[in-house]
Fold RNA helicase.
Amino acid sequence: MSWLQLGGVVRRVVADLGVLGGMIHRSRADKGLWPQSGALLSSATAVPEEVPPAAGRGAKGKRVKRRKEVFTWNEMKKVKYNSFCNKMTPSDRRKVKQMLSWLRCSERTEVDALRKLHVSKELYPSSMRNFCQKFMGHVTEDLKNHLIELYPYNPFKVGQGQGSEESRRREALQNVLFGLYGEFVARDLSEQTEKYRLSAQYSDMRGSHMWYASARAMKRKLIYHAGPTNSGKTYQALQRLVEAGTGVYCAPLRLLAAEGYDTLNRQGAITDLITGQEMKTSPFATHSACTVEMVDLGKEVDVAVLDEIQMIADPDRGYAWTRALLGVPAKEIHVCGDDSVLDLVQRFADRMNEELEVRHYTRHKPLEIEPKPLKDFASVQPGDCLIAFSKKEIYRLKLEVESQTNYKCAIVYGNLPPETRRQQAELFNDPGSDYKVLVATDAVGMGLNLSVRRIIFTKIEKYCGTTNKHQVLSSSQAKQIAGRAGRRSSSYEKGLVSALNKEDLKTIERLMDADLQKQKLAGILPPYEQIEMFASLQADEVVHNLGRLFRAFAKTAQLEDGLYFMCRTKDIETMGRLLTRFTDMSLEEKYKFVIAPIDTSNRDIVLSMLRYVEDFVKREPVCVNVRLPKPNSETYLHKLENCFKILSLYLWLALRFPDEFVEREKAEILLERCTHGIEEALEKLSPESVEQKRVFLEAYIASPKRSARSLRPAPAKREKQKKEKKKRIKGKKER
């Protein structure tokens, strides 16, 4: 029974009680058994004196036809189709259609249908279209008259305030029509709405802090170490971690996790190293250093350190920081980063009813912007770091600097293995080394301790994969990179920042002076258990395609307003689509494969992943199947980088499927050889002769880019194939 039906029943019962009460009052009053005042009857149920005892009849005893104010869909369905609609005047028919059109186009109706009736956005248009058609076929005269009485002058026009007659009519009209639509949905679409209701229930991510029972059972304390780079905030947090009996350090990168592992062990805290690709454990370890995705939420510790907390707002990996902040069972949680997410962490603390202490830090050494830009590459000095945003630009800058100066250049960019990046940083930091200049991408902004005197921005625009455009650096990115200059451990008294031209230097100065943009939302992704429950309600074709499954989940997911956003799942959806044909895999197995950290735009890595999955489905031992390239190849370094990524992928999968991926030791040996090969290749990028350098680098830069946004052949090859196909078809027709 709907609320409108219940209201009508209540009104009829109250009216009948009033009539009955009046009859009893008069009969007992005539006998002297009841007072004449009628004070015991409420004004709402008292019957006026002019109403005769035979309620519902006229003065001559004839029954009076009363207008019916409560209408139900079941009663409308009893009316023969189009029995009254054809009798309506054109004017009345137009008004009824206009009211139905207003109901269908109303944003409030769509929202109420979703929240109250569980009508999905995909189902709403067709359900409303069917309702309007059936409504016109089964409309009754009483209902039509009632709607005409409520008909506002223009239902699409907003009334003059809440108390206006126009608004009251529109509200009453909304209640009548939406009530009938609700009964129609409950009668004809119950199966679809129940399925969507369960899907919405299983994809409800509100109150996600209550998922972590161990953390909620503890009285935790949050300490926020807020400050810019080179302010000592992470150092202070690690000192507290060393003093604790047990603890965990959560780093954003493998390189930082390895550095924390070395630091803690050096200071006497026996520590394990846990990353996605490797595990170094000790039987007497009391601490652990891990990447943030690998933190164990089932192990209680005294102190936890969560580094680079501002990445909680990262569109790709932010969910890992959210999960760690909400779920780490530690008595003290030290979070380190800039103050852009301080308000967000405060809201989390209030929601979890936990104490938050804030400690502010300032830079140990000043950071200044040079008044003039760099004249040319001949003006580069020892301790300088040139920033670019592509690998080819890195090699071009290295060539220019080494040809115009007597300094060798170390190289750091994202595709290099962590060990190689550390080795290049050590070459640059060593005063006795010939490598006096560093050429790097924004990868230097996190995870490396560098003795940099001056940061030189060769460009201020960076390619954004989301928009497929080059965008100017944000204030946070510029400060993170520039903060590498003048570190506390370096021998320089201050840090300097410069650029290659006046326009870029002015932009850098503006970015450095700007306040950090406050981040208001934290990233979140559903755990596997929630995906599994949601998948139980979906069709087989959706379950087999995890890309479609994640998209369907994102559509129905309910997030807490003003607190979370759903992280991007582009790579997950791509791999899920590619693994659709493997129907023999369980959902959990397929889920572990699609969340593997790989770049789906790299063709070699995607093909290697598919080969591993094919062997895995056959339930046979999965071999590494990687051959290191020959050193004399022009694309030797590029091939080594791809081999390193494939071997890292194999090790990542071997931790999840140890019984199937059996060549872990072989993969580790090949990975070490691959790392040494990359280091040697980088050394060969600095031959004695400038001409040899130019020939070597130009050959590398001109090498074909092996991108795999598409596995289709090159355009020229496709055109050739089309022409050959046309010739074959033409030849067949002639024969």
